Amino acid sequence: MIKRGTREFLEREINTQREEKREERREKTAMADSNSSDSVSVDMETIYLGGKEHIIQTGRGTVSVIVYGDQEKPPLITYPDLALNHMLCFQGLFFCPEAASLLLHNFCIYHISPPGHELGAAAICSDDPILSLEDLCDQILEVLNYFRLGSVMCMGAMAGAYILTLFAIKYRDRVTGLILVSPLCKAPSWSEWFYNKFMSNLLYYYGICGLLKECLLQRYFSKEVRGNPEIPESDIVQSCRKLLDERKSINVWRYLQAIDRRPDITEDLKKLKCRTLIFVGDSSPFHSESLHMIGKLDRRFSALVEVQVCGSMVTDEQPHAMLIPLEYFLMGYELYRPSPSTGSPRSPLSPSCIAPELLSPESMGLKLKPIKTRV
């Protein structure tokens, strides 16, 4: 969970830079649109804690990509859920020191935002065609080609997990592995369709109103952190509620339309040859769908981690619960967390360093159900 000091820092920085960034984005995007080449990256000075933003003109519109780390390292791309960007969806994980040392030691991170979901984004013109999820996959391919990336590790949450899974099905040679958080793989059920239609009407007629934010917070978080009349909301929910005000309702509406029209990709899951690690909270509205998905994946290459007392966004609610499963998953690629004492790439959590009794969830201090693996 993001600590109070970190949340206040992010809000202060965002409030300081918001108007300047919006004006700068208008100017840079206009420059990109007027360029006659197939794609162009506009580097911009940003506040993303050391990351650098690239605005990439693709055949399906502009895309914001925040790059962290050494671009000589293996690439890891992320893709967020509805109404989120990387600051809302993944920073809880990347602000966890142990996870940061594992991921930033081994990867250069490329945070890809859905169209119109980056910080300070202007409203997308209503005349522009609504992109399908397949279009978003092809947009990701153009991003990879722009940065001259080969095969990448992918991390996605909810709708973002669906998009990256679809990308891995379409472009199998471009994906090394999948790390999925509360993923989707089926077409919307009747109940989800109705819920999405309700949110769609709220967005269209009322914008980012209080009721819509409540719907989104229920999608993201468990009731334990959303609070009640006796218990206040957690810091991360308060932060998310405030940052949702940054979204333009038309941009969120367009992403929701694409999500609501997604096809069932269950039968295609067997085509995946990359390793897949799934995290899901037991309070997530997508818990049953994640269980369905793990049952359809190749047992030799997939594993499931169910996190107790947690909603969909395990990355923010329980980032520490992801650490050890992530570490063992990455060991399969000969990637390790550096030892703080020696600086060696060999992980202090490697099997030779851990007594078997310490691997129980209680000993790790995590509210985890046993990891359900398919090996």
Profile the largest sheet: 10 strands, mixed
Query: What is the count of β-strands?
Result: 10
Low-confidence runs (pLDDT<50, min 5 residues)?
Answer: 34-47, 341-375
- Terminus-to-terminus distance: 31 Å
Spatial arrangement of strands, main beta sheet: 1-2-3-5-4-6-7-8-9-10
Outline: globular
> Regarding CATH, which class?
Alpha Beta
Helical content class: 40-55%
In what range is the share of β-strand residues? 15-25%
SSE topology string:
HEEEEHHHEHEHEHHHHHEHEHHHE
Compute the gyration radius: what is it? 20 Å
Please report the number of helical segments. Answer: 15
Task: Give structural notes.
With 375 residues, the protein is α/β, with parallel strands linked by helices. It has one domain (67-374): Alpha/Beta hydrolase fold, catalytic domain (Rossmann fold, 3-Layer(aba) Sandwich), CATH 3.40.50.1820. 42% of the residues lie in helices and 15% in strands. It has helices spanning 4-34, 86-89, 91-94, 97-106, 133-146, 159-170, 190-206, 210-220, 223-226, 235-244, 249-260, 287-296, 314-317, 320-331, 361-364; strands at 41-44, 52-58, 61-68, 75-79, 108-112, 152-157, 175-181, 275-281, 302-307, 372-374. It has a 10-stranded mixed beta sheet, sandwiched between helices. A hairpin with a 7-residue loop joins β1 and β2. α1 runs parallel beside α10 (235-244), α5 packs across α6 and α7 (190-206) runs antiparallel to α11. The longest helix is centred in the first third of the chain and has 31 residues, at 4-34. The chain is globular and about 50 Å long. Residues 34-47 and 341-375 have low confidence and may be disordered.
